[in-house]
Amino acid sequence: KQEVTQIPAALSVPEGENLVLNCSFTDSAIYNLQWFRQDPGKGLTSLLLIQSSQREQTSGRLNASLDKSSGRSTLYIAASQPGDSATYLCAVSRNTGKLIFGQGTTLQVKP
Amino acid sequence: DADVTQTPRNRITKTGKRIMLECSQTKGHDRMYWYRQDPGLGLRLIYYSFDVKDINKGEISDGYSVSRQAQAKFSLSLESAIPNQTALYFCATSDSGRASTDTQYFGPGTRLTVL
Fold it and tell me: For chain A, which residues lie within 8 Å of any Cβ of chain B, measuring from their own Cβ?
């Protein structure tokens, strides 16, 4: 059974710092991996999707990497801003489209 | 207008009542999903549908049923609500087309409280 773990559960950093969020999964037979952002009381917004054949994806200040063999993904946020404060979720899927989510990392960026 | 909408956004009900949560999408996607989110447990898949005639149980389908009335509409029902069904419910959609990455797009959520 696929299990997804995100460490740390919470993180607080000063504005401007570069940071890394971690995601690990137990079954390397994945179709893709997605990183989402969730603001309090709101839905999920897809940030980046990495196909199983890819190693990384970039969007603006965000860079996500994938190492299938070790069952790990990282989300790198450069030059963090207070507006980046949110919960970040990673999720993996097999080829059925069903997502298995981690429990999320809640990020606070202090001005 | 939002691409994926959910109604109602908030609902408080009593144990034993029948509840329907509705989801509509204008993205033209064929795949739709229902998840619930509980503190400390993340999101878990309840049901998913790959087209109007294809409906499948997810990880935690007991106590729930669904209806795919059209490609754009996917409803979740709680036939007899119980307090441990208190949660935040999300609908999501994705496109299975050849050029698609199968990215899932989420609605704003429905906060359901069962007393």
Answer: 4, 31-32, 34, 36, 41-46, 49, 51, 89, 91, 93, 97-99, 101-104
DSSP label of B30: S
Which residues face A21 on adjacent strands?
A75
Lookup: tokens for B32: 């739709």
**Chain B residues in contact with A45 (beta carbon < 8 A):** 106
- pLDDT tens for each residue of B6-64: 999 999 999 999 999 999 999 999 999 999 999 877 899 999 999 999 999 998 999 99
CA distance B59 to B48: 10
Burial of B62 (0-12, 13-18, 19+ CB in 10 A): exposed
pLDDT class for A41, splitting at 50, 70, 90? Answer: confident
The partner residue sitting opposite A103, judged by closest CB among B42, B94, B107, is: B42
> Which of these, A78, A102, A89, A69, lies nearest to A2 by C-alpha position?
A102
Mutate to test the interface with A, among B37, B95, B104 (most CBs of A within 10 A): B104
Bridge-based pairing of strands A10-14 and A105-110 is parallel
Closest CA to A34 of B71, B77, B12, B33: B33
> Residue A36 corresponds to which tokens in the numbers above?
């989402």
User: How far apart are alpha carbons A88 and B77 in whole angstroms?
Assistant: 29
Q: Which tokens belong to A66?
A: 């994938």
